[in-house]
Amino acid sequence: MCIVKHEINKNISITVHKSWQDFFSKYKSDLENIFEYMNKFDKTLIYPSEDKIFRVFEMDVNDIRVVLLGQDPYHNKGQANGLSFSVEKGIKTPPSLQNIYKELKYEFPDRNYTFEHGDLSEWFIREKIFLLNASLTVMDSKPSCFMKHWRIFTDNVIRFIDNNNSKCVFLLLGNFAKSKMKYLQDDTYTKRVVCATHPSPLSAYNGFFGSMVFYNVEKILGEEINWSI
Fold first, then answer.
1. Domain that holds residue 87
2. Known catalytic residue: 72?
């Protein structure tokens, strides 16, 4: 069995792919501190739900093709599902993800992509796109409220991926994501990083639209990604 249970403390156990088991053991005390802090708040107001916080780590680190880094989960009830930029089916597709879809249609017009919802689970499961948020949790209507508590842990996640997967591409959108390049090895930095402006409506017209980032990701990988959902 590739998915294993990992105990954070006596009250919380999570499931991760076995390739992450040593990593989670190493940073167990960090996670204990994070959950101890979050326990001060109403759990029903923390997103995503506890069973989805570590969802992205169900992927084998060796299978990752693309790392797409987000900032923190969506902070409205019912949106976050444990994958960056993704929302649950039935929830209106957020503006940044709508712009990602527009750029994909622009870059690959011959593929006739249609996007009916904002759940990126198929990218995660089928295409092995590691949809990581720098903060794994958020409080209702309080963006980035847990960022300082998660930052060191997820920075180490980035290092771990880079040290254990020599083929994946890092897709970094926006200045926040670009700031994580300092955790990558030199060879990765020069050969396996694709950057652009964030797809937010506030910045998409200043370097995201027309950037050809998804085309460049496929070019580096040397293979096509099925971006349909």
1. 59-221
2. yes
